[in-house]
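User: Reviewer 2 asked us to show a designed sequence for the structure in our supplementary figure. I'm pasting the structure tokens here. Could you produce the per-position amino acids so we can include them in the response letter?
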């Protein structure tokens, strides 16, 4: 079904929900490969290329975080790549999906509505308008423990 799944992570508790879901989905899809992406969107991350800046401490932390996730997936037998990008999250995710030949974007959503989306914006909402790649949105509630994935058989 799906061969290459792009998974945006935020470096927040919301990530655990989508990562647990993608583990099951990728196994169901004949061990689809996984591309993890984190889009750092601070000032340094948005300006790093134009101003030839070094990675900020936040970006270094983000890189360690995404690489640790990739390592855990690799230990479970998945083919996984980890990408740290900088800039506008929705645009970077859409561009990555195209560049990496992903056939699904699977992401956690916060479930904001109305004024909260207007004030904060919604990466998921913007992304679904600019990509032709199907987007699977899994509503996350970090206050609840994510389901424990069962070992592969």
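Assistant: Here is a per-position design you can include in the supplement:
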């Amino acid at each position: 079904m799906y061969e290459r799944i792009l998974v945006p992570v935020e470096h927040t508790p919301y990530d655990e929900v989508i990562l647990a879901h993608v583990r099951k989905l990728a196994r169901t899809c004949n061990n689809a490969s996984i591309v993890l992406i984190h889009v750092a969107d601070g000032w340094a991350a948005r300006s790093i290329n134009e101003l030839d800046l070094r990675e900020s401490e936040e970006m270094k932390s983000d890189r360690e975080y995404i690489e640790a996730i990739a390592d855990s997936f690799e230990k479970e037998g998945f083919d996984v790549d980890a990408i740290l990008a900088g800039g506008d999250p929705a645009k970077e995710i859409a561009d990555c999906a195209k560049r990496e030949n992903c056939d699904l974007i699977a992401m956690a959503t916060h479930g904001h509505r109305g004024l909260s989306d207007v004030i904060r914006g919604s990466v998921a909402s913007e992304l679904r308008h600019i990509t032709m790649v199907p987007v699977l949105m899994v509503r996350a509630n970090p206050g609840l423990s994510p389901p424990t994935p069962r070992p592969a058989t």
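For the response letter, you might also mention the following. The chain has one domain: 4-139. Helices lie at 15-28, 43-47, 57-75, 89-99, 115-120, 123-130.
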